[in-house]
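Contributing new complexes? Match this layout with (2S)-sulfonatepropionyl-CoA.
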Amino acid sequence: MAFILTGFNENIGTITFNNYEKRNALNKALLEELIAALEDFKEKKARAVILRAAKGSKVWSAGHDICELPKSGRDPLPYGDPLEQAMRAIERFSAPVIAMIEGSVWGGACELAFICDILIGTPASSFAITPARIGVPYNPSGILHFINMLGIGSVKEMFFTAQPINAERAERMGILNHLVPVEELENFTYGMARRIASNSPLCISVIKEQLRILCGAHPLSPETFERIQGLRRLVYDSKDYMEGTKAFLEKRTPVFKGD
Ligand code: YXS
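Output block (do not edit by hand):
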């Protein structure tokens, strides 16, 4: 089964999540297909890529596939995790990637959407950052992506409450570049992609890479890095981390005890 569908037209690539039975949960296979699709679009010299869910989706993506999160004692978001690899592939893709958001976005899918260059949503779009709901210690590069997008106050609220932010607020916060009626979403998004495709691809790819380098220019001392890793280990070694994933799979509310 293909976990994504792809298309290529007028130098614009399209990647459509195709795992709705599991609410487009980002499993290893889907993410490997996404990375392969970007490689193919690179060969075809795509000038823009659109990342989307199927038309009419109520959920854009439910985030990391919880069934694939490691058991206690292992970092759930290591550097080599397929989701981390997919995000780096998007960040380093030479052309702009536009997230066309129809439906709700959860957990690691928020970071996947935020790492895209432009986000276009509808009034039914929403965004929920959910590590605290599952008991997952997010990683430094991911937190930096959120800080670069939102500012520290909004990042704290979204991480601490794990509650969805609606489309109107998401536009005010700068998450959405554009908020359009659902019936206009495809035309608006592909219209922007065509405008981008008509500009200088070399200039755009250099500006995109310059922005990536400048946004990520936060040197960490080895001691700071080790302290962050030690803090994260406290969480992923905890009973709460086990309880979060177990509760989801048993379809019940988690009972966190703080240890
Ligand atoms: O019971 P079946 O087999 O039909 O499967 C159900 C769900 O178990 C499955 N599913 C998922 N499977 C794995 N990983 C997921 N993230 C996931 N989400 C859903 O899809 C089938 C249909 O789900 P259901 O019945 O709940 O659909 P719904 O339409 O009533 O509700 C849609 C959602 C998205 C509101 C609901 O599925 C939900 O709350 N999903 C979990 C959202 C979430 O907390 N995602 C965070 C994943 S962890 C992550 O991304 C990072 C590690 S972190 O946490 O750090 O951000």
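Reviewers usually confirm one structural detail per submission. For this one: The chain has a mean pLDDT of 95.
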